[in-house]
Amino acid sequence: MKKLSICVFSALALMMLSGCFTHYIKTGKGGNAVQSDDMELYFVAGLAGDVKTYVDDICESSKHTTVKVGRTFVDLLINLLSGLILSPQHVTVICEEY
């Protein structure tokens, strides 16, 4: 039974640590100056959370922005150590610099 538990935990750890991802959302030509880089916290493997990023407030007059959403190795480690309860993600807002 102990060997089975170790195998299951190892398989879950391997899957979690190989799951880094990054999404880019661009408007216009995209931005070139980082204005905000925050860790947002979600729960239950990212299924629950009420985090909103208001790009218009961060990039006040810029029509060219990029929002980068992703998980880093540290985010995945936190997710694994919390037993999939906490699921942090990094959200970076990049605005056009004048």
UniProtKB/TrEMBL annotation:
Signal peptide start and end residues: 1-22
InterPro entries associated with the record: Lambda_Bor
Entries under Pfam families matching the protein: Lambda_Bor
Organism per entry: Sulfobacillus acidophilus
Keywords from the UniProt entry: Signal
UniProt protein name: Lipoprotein
